[in-house]
């Protein structure tokens, strides 16, 4: 191989938009980033930018993406990670529960990608779209009641496959990452209300532990980089092996 693994995985000089060495533009619904993000900004001056945005608002979404494109003049990649989850029995889901999840997980994802792809095509950039999906799109999650959330992630999974086909002629790649149990703020808040989930998080995965956000880093980097230039339409599962034991959770717990 003429290129090293390091060079294939490099994002140097690229502009990446994250909806939650590259120049990275991060959007999130809160007005100001947290302390950890601010610390990272200080470590990478001029390379990490924050834009408050509610992806359920068309006006905000268009405005923020226009800001990003105006500031950086290009976009090479997008990570769609905005998502909310309601964990309750099917018959207890309210109209508002379902609509809110659809607005963030489905509509927000769809139009963030549309804004990005439009700019990529205008500039002739063969970029990469990475959509954070979930193992719940294809497998029941033990200990949870996630009918609406799982349905919204099924939308993301299917959307990615269709976009991978439609955008291939423009050289734009589209892939998903399906995490299993990851120790995110959202999952930890659910576990705080459900002590039984702590055991499930750590014992259901065959690897015997809950996933950490760091476990997703190389998966995201790979799909954004030229190291995956011939990969599109893939669902990269990062779940500690849970998908290979789906249906046998009771015997393993």
Describe this structure in words.
Belongs to the short-chain dehydrogenases/reductases (SDR) family. Helix 3 (58-72) runs parallel beside helix 4 and helix 4 (95-123) packs parallel to helix 5 (147-166). This protein has one domain (5-238): Rossmann fold, CATH 3.40.50. It has 253 residues and is an alpha/beta fold. The longest helix has 29 residues, at 95-123. The chain has a 7-stranded parallel sheet with strand order 3-2-1-4-5-6-7, with helices on both faces. The protein has helices spanning 5-8, 35-43, 58-72, 95-123, 147-166, 185-193, 196-203, 214-224, 249-252, and strands spanning 15-19, 23-28, 48-52, 77-80, 128-132, 173-179, 235-238. It is 43% helix and 14% strand.
- Gap between N and C termini: 45 Å
Helix content: 40-55%
For the biggest β-sheet, the strand order reads: 3-2-1-4-5-6-7
The CATH homologous superfamily is named: NAD(P)-binding Rossmann-like Domain
Assigned CATH architecture: 3-Layer(aba) Sandwich
Low-confidence stretches: 1-15, 247-253
Q: What is the domain tally?
A: 1
CATH class group: Alpha Beta
Rounded mean pLDDT score: 83
Question: Proportion of β residues?
Answer: 5-15%
CATH topology: Rossmann fold
Q: What is the structural class?
A: alpha/beta
Using only CA atoms, what is the Rg? 18 Å
The best one-word shape is globular
Number of strands: 7
Tell me the number of helical segments per DSSP (H or I, 4 or more residues long). Answer: 9
Query: What is the succession of H and E elements?
Result: HEEHEHEHEHEHHHEH
* Biggest pleated-sheet summary: 7 strands, parallel
InterPro entries: NAD(P)-bd_dom_sf (IPR036291), SDR_fam (IPR002347)
GO molecular function: oxidoreductase activity, acting on NAD(P)H, oxygen as acceptor; oxidoreductase activity, acting on the CH-OH group of donors, NAD or NADP as acceptor
Family: Belongs to the short-chain dehydrogenases/reductases (SDR) family.
Pfam families: adh_short_C2
